[in-house]
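Q: Start with the shorter request: fold the first protein.
A: Done. Sequence, then structure:
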Amino acid sequence: MVVDLKRKESDLIEQLQGHSKADEAFLISSSYILELANKADELFEKSQDRQKNELLRFVLANASVEGEKLVYKLKNPFAGIVLCNETNDWLPGSDSNRRPIR
């Protein structure tokens, strides 16, 4: 009984450490994405055509041209960033039951 409890405790400690590492990685990735989004216009302007094409493919999904208008859908997480920027709600559902950005 004590041995089983110690094993379960050890497993839970390992899981907690794994979650902590994942949280840190998520925060670092989120920071890089927000920094990229913040500098997107500057990066795009300074890029060569091939790089511009790669940036557009990275951010846009199903882009097409209708007449003189570019029609596109943003990929995640960029769609969420734009939504949060438009609504000024950077913590949607900020209660005990956090929900993903739509």
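Q: Next, the second protein, separately.
A: Sequence, then structure:
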Amino acid sequence: MAKAMYVRFETSKELADKVFQLVELVRDTGKVKKGSNEVTKLVEKGAANFVVMAEDVQPEEILAHMPLLCEEKNVPYGYVPSKQELGIACGLEKPTASVAITNVGKGKALLEEMTKAMAELKK
């Protein structure tokens, strides 16, 4: 499968699994906001600590602006392969294209690890 136009770097399965772990941890102990419109607003306001985007979103234009916006606002971001799994990780019964972590709860150490790992991949 060809990489979506908004996917700026490869995320290994191991790293994607850690991102899901982070979203689940934050869902239970912090705050996760779901949906691309909501995520866009939070990034623009500087209220997002980390953004997660699914790689299988159609149409791709839904997330085309997100990596650049995150970089402009210095918000770390990462990718997971499946919007279905991302939806489940944040407690939804349906898929979601992207989520923003606004309160890391008990996920602080994991978030720091993810931020470093994603920064390395972007180089």
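Q: Describe the second briefly.
A: The radius of gyration is 13 Å. The beta strands are 31-34, 50-54, 77-80, 98-103.
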